[in-house]
Design brief:
Two copies of one chain form a homodimer. With 405 residues, the first copy, chain A, is mainly beta. Chain A has helices spanning 8-16, 19-26, 36-41, 97-100, 121-125, 170-176, 200-203, 265-268, and strands at residues 60-64, 67-70, 88-89, 107-111, 117-120, 130-137, 160-169, 186-191, 206-210, 218-223, 226-227, 237-239, 252-258, 293-298, 309-318, 324-330, 338-339, 341-343, 353-361, 364-374, 377-378, 400-404. The first copy, chain A, has a five-stranded mixed β-sheet. In chain A, strands 6, 7, 10, 11 and 12 form a five-stranded antiparallel β-sheet that branches. In chain A, strands 16, 17, 20, 21 and 22 form a five-stranded antiparallel β-sheet that branches.
């Protein structure tokens, strides 16, 4: 077994657990480090499931076997989210090594092109590779802020991460297949993770996105420079940058250019944005493009008070399909706003940017919120109420209230 | 204990070891995946030392306790090198948790400024953070290509990585200290890792770099979004982007602006570029700025033959202090060159770029080399001979010879 990167001492501190909490809170710690205090606060939560046992237990909240959230301050101050900390959302059980088999022999069929072909993963890896940083975000991220107790994991900010994907561009594959067939309107990805003997209409993970998405999409076998772990869709995943997580089909074995949307449940009725009390159907919008969004990651509210004086407020912002252009921060719940600065390199329009603002804070209570703009649109103040609590990008709910002493 | 990210099956294959080698070679595998074959080739090497036991054993070559190299194809096709795969070069024993103590209370003193101050790490973390991607490379990277058996680890290409650092800008600290003292000419970093009761002249890790380096330097507490592991310099490391690894002082506890270079051995006589047979002294150049450099990472030479037809050649290139502008690839040992394409986002001038070229290769033997340019300078063909085999950026030695069948 590998040792963890962090040391035995810090691991022992973590195990010592709640004894440390009061001490840290009293000291007014607001450090971005994932501390024992924080981990202790979550220690009564569920244990990591076996297929994700390698995740950093101090960085996540385990809602269930199919919902593991990154804690607010653990999404990665190095822009990219370490995969040990990255959230997990599985609609179907994670494929096992046995079910995946020899990865080199994994096949991907391409349909809806002039010359349909089937490639092995080994063949794809011999093509010219491409690398792209992109935000991966669950459609339900922010569900935990809704008041109506929508069904599903009660995510706050952490069903999202920014990761580096490596694979092959879909445009390159289309060229090798002689171009698109005529009349196609959607890019439809199909996963191989349907459990045996199920009804495909109910259990096949298949998603359609508008045709143009293929121009930016890639088929990835690596995440942050490492082989895709099973739980994130090994050995091959469709990456639809700027589109919500569910469209980034895991365990991909078919990519089809189609004239209509898939008719399986995961497309037709799940992931539909409907009025509260209403079931999903194709009459309602599906979870496709991500809207402009941001949130504060530091200081966090549950680490005791912050020392008065200069306080750095930082967070992340992204624009879906548009490059984020501007972030403002307010320390009074949105009455007054100041422009924040972007930090670090720009990893491209599909990645998030880190931002920071230095504020001079006297003792008191502060509601710290952020508001991003992209492509001429700014985040709205409020969420749009909907049955399954999807697409939340309202700035008000995403803020934190901190105590300055 | 955490499970590793990769699966039990692939781990079992790895352990099965040499039985797999012949099979893979016969199949002509040239995949970027770190295969059992590759791992098996290194299995007679030393085991990972305890302080680096969490490294990916399939991705590294353990030269010694103080020299662990990343294998050619494991530096990360996602631009950034996963820290599980990142090389290790330690001049002094890695500090233990016990010696580091409470990281929040770690102190950094700043001297050679108008108002010298001492900061705790906790205080530094409350300042406005900064993030930067940079190449980290040992001065001796490429030593294994020299013919005279220079003393030290026989690195080929893998004493280098590109990582994301998070910390605080040195310029921000200088401002807080009232600006630079007059007459200073060097930035001198000192590590806290000298073993007890040693002679500082011989065992203090202290390095000086030209003053202007401070404008880009940061003090980092995170690498790739995770807390710095001890072996990489926890809890605080000086990052001097564009400068060789040794100048990026680990376990940093003093940063001084000085009027002259440090007089300790690691500055005065070690890391000096001297004629073969000559000892180091301050009469000779030290290992400071990195020169423009590139190498091919795929296909690799030790994985059997490559299938004839379209073959993608890829690698990395960087320019030290200058952004890399151009990479050419030759498949005939440098007689003819073709321009390669850059892949993926540009993480800034201190990071490396990935490049690729698609070649159409008939059966035969090919010597594949790459040559990068930056700031108007191109890599030379040959190495410059020197006693300790430093600063090798000649393109000829860094190539690979592949068999196409």
């Amino acid at each position: 077994m590998k040792q963890t990167r962090q040391t035995n001492i810090s691991r022992r501190n973590f195990l010592a657990g709640s004894a440390t909490v009061a001490g840290l809170a009293a000291a007014g710690s607001v450090l971005p480090t994932i501390t024992a205090a924080n981990a202790a606060a979550h220690e009564k939560k569920n244990a990591l499931p076996d297929f994700a046992a390698w995740k950093n237990e101090q960085a996540v909240i385990v809602h269930s076997r199919s919902g593991i959230e990154t804690i607010r301050e653990a999404i990665g101050s190095g822009i990219l989210t370490p995969i040990d900390n990255l959230y997990v959302r599985n609609n179907l059980p994670t494929m096992t090594d046995e079910a995946i088999g020899d990865k080199d022999k994994w096949t991907l069929s391409i349909e809806g092109v002039k010359n349909p072909k089937t490639f092995t993963l080994k063949q794809l890896k011999l093509m010219s590779p491409t690398t792209m940083a992109a935000v991966l975000q669950c459609s339900g991220n922010g569900r935990g802020f809704f008041a109506h107790k929508a069904s599903g994991s009660q995510w706050k900010t952490g069903a999202a991460g920014c990761v580096m994907w490596t694979g092959v561009a879909v445009t390159d594959l289309v060229k090798m297949c002689g171009g698109l067939a005529s009349g196609v309107k959607f890019l439809t990805g199909t996963g191989a993770d349907m459990p045996k003997d199920q009804d495909p209409q109910k259990a096949l993970l298949e998603r359609s996105v508008p045709l143009n998405v293929y121009k930016d999409a890639i088929l990835a076998w690596e995440i942050n420079g490492e082989d895709l772990p099973n739980v994130h869709g090994a050995p091959l995943r469709l990456v639809t940058p700027g589109y919500y997580g569910v469209n980034n089909v895991k365990h991909l074995n078919k990519l089809a250019f189609t004239t209509s949307e898939s008719q399986v449940r995961f497309m037709k009725s799940s992931y539909r944005v409907t009025p509260i009390g209403t079931k999903g159907s194709s009459d309602y919008p599906t979870c496709w493009e991500m809207d402009v969004k941001s949130w504060v990651t530091l200081p966090v509210a549950d680490k005791g008070s912050v020392a008065a004086g200069k306080v750095t407020i930082s967070g992340v912002a992204f624009g879906g399909l548009k490059e984020v252009s501007n972030v403002e921060v307010s320390v009074d719940g949105g009455k007054n706003w100041k422009k924040a600065q972007f930090i670090g390199p720009n990893l491209g329009k599909f990645a998030w940017r880190q931002f920071a603002l230095e504020a001079d804070l006297k003792p008191g209570s502060y509601n710290v919120v952020s508001r991003a703009s992209a492509g001429g649109k700014s985040q709205p103040e409020l969420r749009i109420e909907n049955e399954r609590a999807y697409l939340h990008n309202g700035w008000k709910d995403h803020g934190v209230t901190i105590q300055v002493a």
